[in-house]
Amino acid sequence: MKWVTNWANAISIATNKPEQYTKNITLRYPILSVFDGTKVRITLDNFTGKEEVHFEKITIAKTGEKKEHIVPSTLKTITFDGKEQVSLKAGETRQSDAIDFETEKNAFFTINIYLKEFTSLRAATTTLGPLSKFYYSLEDQSESECLPMDLYKGTEWVYFLSDIEIFTEDTNKSIVCFGDSITAQDWPEWLQLDALKENISVSFPRKAASGARILREYHNVLYESYGLKSDTRFVHDMDVQGCDTVIVLEGINDIIHPVGADKNPYRPWSDLPTAQEVIDGYRVLIKMARERGLKIYFGTIIPFKGWRTYAPFREDLKQEINAWIRTTDEIDGYIDFDKDLDDANAFKPEFDSGDHLHPSKAGYQQMAKTALEALKKYHEI
Questions:
Q1: Is 320 buried (19+), middle (13-18) or exposed (0-12) by CB count in 10 A?
Q2: Is residue 367 a contact partner of residue 190, using CB atoms and an 8 Å limit?
Q3: Four-CA torsion 336, 215, 264, 309, nearest 10 degrees
Q4: Cross-strand pairs, 145
Q5: What CA dihedral angle connects 309, 312, 315 and 321, to 10 degrees?
Q6: Cα separation of 246 and 178, whole Å?
């Protein structure tokens, strides 16, 4: 038996708003169990926070018939060094005690986090996909079977919760999906569901943040929610239990963001990299992966023709980077997302969400199929 990360999330920076504080609120996160297991532990992360946060109570229970419900008879309190309450200083990360809790493959369990005092909701990221159906409710609902209809809403945001590990069979493992908004959205979750359908005992924890770039990050209140640069995130995010492989899909934001200081003072042309600079940024991640004993695969950058900053010189840059990904012997292999989604440098119509940058549901499902087949070809699963 060993610990394997069942689910994960990159802690980034929530969009700055004056109202980005809360109190007396419960966060409820239903999580699909990929493995049968006997124990669970979680990690809370205030990596990007600027002030201390306090957690009054955290519980775990099996999920009820509705995702927003729990089964009270299975409820347990998650502790930290034997205590129900825990505080995290700015930048601090804490792992919980191991909690005896039976998980069942293909069944959901729920994490409830009660924030009693005023709390800065800065350390967070937003995720989308068929498994990302989360909730918050006013008042302490950490032990409530049902969230009160007049007090709760759905949310796409995950606050503070970065990793969930299950004590499970030695044969189980995880493969991390690392990237930007395209990976923070659906394809890793469709990949997880496709793998479960084939009874493949591999979890695909996601470490992705919208707006993230390989080479740069924003240091201003308007754009800092676009996340930290890749090497900063990789150092922090890749302590993933049971992981021997990482898939990297990132680089499109380095290509599309710069527009010139005359149009946007935070997006000067000096931010536009050469293909060699992006490749050198990839090599930093490759080195970090090797130091951690990880195999590393890169996904090709997907189509973006029609996006508002699209231009032929950006397309040329993408193609040069993708050519390197497809031919280099510095990585363990590649996943050719671009080839399977592309129609003359644009998305095939059925794969375009409409913004010409992010895939549609069908596009993300195709990405999952492409990834699954590639991982089979490389004998990773």
A1: middle
A2: yes
A3: -10
A4: none
A5: -120
A6: 7
Encoded amino acid at 144, one letter? S
Tokens of 259: 């527009």
- The C-alpha atoms of residue 127 and residue 282 are separated, in whole angstroms, by 24
Please report, for residues 110, 136, 141, 186, the alpha-carbon distance to residue 149 in angstroms, rounded to integers and kept in the order given: 18, 11, 12, 28
Reported residue count of the chain is: 381
pLDDT in 10s for each residue of the chain, 381 residues: 999 999 999 999 998 888 889 999 999 999 999 999 999 999 999 999 999 999 999 999 999 999 999 999 999 999 999 999 999 999 999 999 999 999 999 999 999 999 999 999 999 999 999 999 999 999 999 999 999 999 999 999 999 999 999 999 999 999 999 999 999 999 999 999 999 999 999 999 999 999 999 999 999 999 999 989 999 999 999 999 999 999 999 999 999 999 999 999 999 999 999 999 999 999 999 999 999 999 999 999 999 999 999 999 999 999 999 999 999 999 999 999 999 999 999 999 999 999 999 999 999 999 999 999 999 999 999
* pTM score: 0.96
Query: Tokens representing 303?
Result: 């189509």
Q: What is the DSSP string of 201-249?
A: -EE--EEE-TT--SS----STTTGGG---HHHHHHHHT--TTEEEEEEE
